[in-house]
Structure formats: structure tokens, C-alpha cells
Design goal:
Blueprint lengths: L1 E6 L18 E6 L2 E6 H4 L6 H6 L5 E4 L4 H9 L3 E4 L5 H9 L19
Pfam families: Nitro_FeMo-Co
Protein name: Dinitrogenase iron-molybdenum cofactor biosynthesis protein
Organism: Pyrobaculum neutrophilum (strain DSM 2338 / JCM 9278 / NBRC 100436 / V24Sta)
């Protein structure tokens, strides 16, 4: 299972979870024991919608504190599960995810885009 989490700093599993999604400074993809870090500008190059570019990382699951409505519905349409992040770090959120303690991201919390496309 490939889990994508937006983070403030790339410190592996100890990375602090970002309060942003598409504008987070980094994205971490955790797949089993593998942890891959990407700078936002490596992923979001301006060649499409942010969510389209983030989908290129092929996540099965997204754990986030916030997400825009277009990204929310695009990810759901692609079968990507979205969970509301709990915990300060990636390790804490992953632990809660594995224990089944994270709730699915409520659609009513998905917001209108705050940036230009």
C-alpha cells in the first residue's frame, strides 16, 4: 500500500505533517519499509491541475489535514482512499492508519481551491 502524506520537512517517518495539501513543501510516499521524499516543485510543475500531478506518485491512500474539493473527488474517482491526518508526525499517522484509528476524510471538509491552476 502506497501512502502519500504532505509534510513540512523531509525527515523520513519523523516528518511533521503539513497543514496544507497541494502547497505542502514536501510529499512523503511510504510503501512498506520504503520512504520516498519529494519536494513540492519536483511533483507540481505547472503542467496540469495539482491533483493530476500528485496522482503521478501513484498513491493508494492519502493522509492529510486538508484537501481541496477538486482533488478530493478526483482522488476518490481513482480509488484512492483519503484519511484525516491525526498525530504530529508521519510515524504517528501511519501507526493510527495501521490500527484502523484514522477516519476517512469527511467530504464536507474538502474546500474550494485557494490557488490558481
Amino acid at each position: 500500500m502506497r501512502v502519500l502524506i504532505p509534510v513540512e520537512e523531509n525527515k523520513g517517518l519523523q516528518s511533521p505533517i503539513s497543514d496544507e495539501f497541494g502547497e505542502a513543501p514536501f510529499f512523503l510516499v511510504v510503501d512498506g519499509d520504503r520512504v520516498e521524499g519529494y519536494k513540492n516543485e519536483e511533483v507540481i510543475t505547472g503542467r496540469g491541475h495539482r491533483w493530476e500531478e500528485i496522482l503521478k506518485l501513484k498513491p493508494d491512500v492519502v493522509v492529510t489535514r486538508e484537501i481541496g474539493r477538486p482533488a478530493f473527488y478526483a482522488f476518490k474517482a481513482k480509488g484512492v482512499k483519503i484519511y484525516l491526518a491525526e498525530g504530529a508526525t508521519v510515524a504517528e499517522a501511519l501507526d493510527k492508519l495501521r490500527r484502523g484509528e484514522l477516519r476517512e476524510f469527511p467530504p464536507e471538509l474538502a474546500h474550494e481551491p485557494r490557488h490558481r491552476h
